[in-house]
Structures are given as C-alpha cells and as structure tokens.
C-alpha cells in the first residue's frame, strides 16, 4: 500500500508507513547498483477472494529492448500462504509463480493491451488463477477470531535468468547489456507495492460519542459535485474490522469494494461512489448507530443520489446492516447480504414496512455461519411481508434468495458467499437497478 502518500491522521498509520521504508534495506540483491537493476516493484490486483501480487516491474537504467524478452527471462517466487487456510508460519514458504506475459512499459504498471512501449520497466505478469502470492495476512488475534491486514512487506522474489538488453542505437541488433543474467541471485522487492484500484481509495474517519469509524471511499474519476451519484456502502466481515493496525484491508481482502469500479463485475459503466467503513466489533446496535450518523454526514459532503444508497455486506457486516435498517429504514434503496447473520423479527418488520429490496446469498456448507441463519432470514422476511398483505409474487419481487453448493466456490472457503455472488454479474446489476420511490 502507498500509505506514505495518504494524509491519514492516525498514529498507527504512521507506523505502517514507516514499515514501507524498509523496502531496499533487506540485502540479498535488488539494490540500485546490483546487476543493473534499479528497482523491483510488486503490482497487486484484487481478485474474487482478495488481493495478490499479479505482476512485478523490474526497472533498468535505460530503455529496454523488448525483442530480447520472453517469459523465461525472469522467474518469480511468492508465498503459498493464504490467511483463509494456512497458519501464519507458512508465510515464508515460497512457490514458483507462472509467468504469463513479459513486456516493457514506461512506468511500474501493467498495460491492458499487454504490449511493449518504450520504457525502462520490464513488466512480468503472473497467472491470476494460481493459488499463490496473496497479500492479506493475520494481523492480531484479540479473541478467538483474528483480524487481518495487508502485508506491508510481501515476500515476493525475482530471478533474472537471461541478460536484459537496451535499445540498439541504430534500430538493429540486441543493443547494450543493461544487466547480465544472474540465475543464482534471488532478489527481494525494493519499492512499495502498486496496489491497483486500492491505491485510489481515500481515507476518512467519523467520530461520535467517543467512537471512531475509519473508512475509505472512492469517487469517480470525473467526479462532478453538480451531479448525483449512486452510493455503494460496503460493510466488511469481522476480520476486516479496525484493530489499530490494518487500515484499508476492508478494500483489499475480498472483491466487494473494488468490484463497483469495474464494468466486468457490475455489467455496466455507471459511475458509483464506493464507501467502505471498518468497524470496531463492539456490537451491531452501537456500530449501526455510528454508521448511520456517518452516512448522514457523508451524504451532505458528497454528491450522493439519496434515492440510490445501497449496502452490500460480508459476514459480520450483515449485523450492522440489519440494525441500520431497523434504525433508519428510509435511508437505503436496497441491499445485498452475503454469508450473513439472521435478521430478527423486529428488523424484518422494519424492512417489510419500508419495502427494502434484498438479495440474500449463503453457502450451503458455510462452516462459520450455518445455512440455517440465511433460511431463518428468508422465513422471517416472508412472514413480515405476508403480515402486511403482500402476495407471494410481490414478496418474490422484493426478496431474492440464493444458496450455493460447494462447486460454486473457486476456493473452498464456503463461508465466502461473496465469491459466487459477485461472479454472477446479474446480482450486482440487480442491486444498482433498485431505486427508492420518488417523494
């Protein structure tokens, strides 16, 4: 994370930023004068089940000749550790990453066309489907459940197996050697990661009654305060709550925050404001009260279409949403609850009275929150609507419900119902299509 460029007035953030200064101080290769390599930058992407190193950028002292590069010029190793399945002791265990593309760029960034342009950076792209290179690690375990954070010092390593050449002076030949092959030298990262999309989120916090609610938000690139934009509130799971050391993890740990910035996830190109608060794990009612107050202030500060405020949740985030619905049912246009807790009868009655459209998804073999919780939610909501005279057909239009068998999960974490939910673009598209009635 590029913490150093964010103005975050939180003491723990300063400590995290300081840890970023460790890049280049490891030894063991990768420094500016070692083998002609000036820097090595990890580039990350948030995939369905979280952020991983998706490429590395190797910088040289002059423009690189792309014609002398192929996918065997470099090899990359990265961690096998995945916080969902592995003990933290597995973090140093490395495996070979599959290199998919190698090309030249003028910045430490990937290119959508994967084509070389004149520049000093060799971009080595890695197989996104390989179960390796994950960046989220355990942070603290204050209770039986742990929190997680983005690793400020990823263990990714690079070996330059073939010589890298500069551009030939007269357009022919290999050009001068910029760095000789060093197949026995494994180099660590020397620059802070470039976290694609995650780096675009800004920090904010809301303070009320002695409680602080840290959050990150993303405004459209061509944000116009004279327009009105839909607002997507992303409420994360228990492990992504604020623990004093893990800012921004709620954006990186899984797909629901960054999905709304990408047409391939949403099925459309509409600009959306994304708001991703963390939470303090002090109880749904108190946190929901703080959340609602923060939302009221956020709506005053930014160009939000108040007929189109949505919420999407992961696991623990559902408790905040159920309580927020009961407290302010007028606030939200619709909601998407994945792998969550059960609604109670009072909350169901408030939702039914406000006729808030909902889509609830859950894994049939969820090992943390049993499928019975989602089924109870469906039962209570249908009963609440029926008590208000709604027909079964009307209820079906307001309440969508999906259960996922194990085969729907690309990784065998059957609690992570957000995975198959967001991979079905019809569900995000449905959410953005909902609107509160005009008043």
Task: Characterize the structure shown.
- With about 450 residues, the chain is α/β, with parallel strands linked by helices.
- The strands form 5 sheets. Strands 14-15-17-16-18-19-20-21 form an 8-stranded mixed sheet, with helices on both faces. The protein has a 5-stranded mixed sheet with strand order 5-6-2-1-13, with no helix packed on it.
- Strand 14 and strand 15 form a beta hairpin.
- Helix 4 packs across helix 5 and helix 6 packs across helix 7.
- The protein is elongated and about 80 Å long.
- The N terminus is likely disordered.
Task: Kindly report the CATH topology of the largest domain.
Answer: Rossmann fold
Unreliable residue runs: 1-34
Domains (count): 2
In CATH, the homologous superfamily of the largest domain goes by the name: Alpha/Beta hydrolase fold, catalytic domain
- Helical stretch tally: 10
Helical percent range? 10-25%
Ends distance: 43 Å
Largest sheet: 8 strands, mixed
Estimate what percentage of residues fall within beta strands: 25-35%
- The radius of gyration computed from the alpha-carbon positions, rounded to a whole number of angstroms, is 24 Å
| Shape field | elongated
Topology:
Elements: H1 11-20, E1 37-47, E2 50-60, E3 74-79, E4 94-96, E5 99-105, E6 121-126, E7 136-138, E8 148-150, E9 157-160, E10 164-165, E11 177-179, E12 187-188, E13 194-195, E14 202-208, E15 211-218, E16 229-235, H2 249-252, H3 263-266, E17 273-277, H4 284-301, E18 304-314, H5 317-327, E19 334-338, H6 345-354, E20 358-363, H7 371-387, H8 392-398, E21 399-404, H9 418-423, H10 426-433
Parallel strand pairs: 1-13, 16-17, 16-18, 18-19, 19-20, 20-21
Antiparallel strand pairs: 1-2, 2-6, 3-4, 3-9, 5-6, 7-8, 9-12, 10-11, 14-15, 15-17
Helix pairs in contact: 4-5, 5-6, 6-7
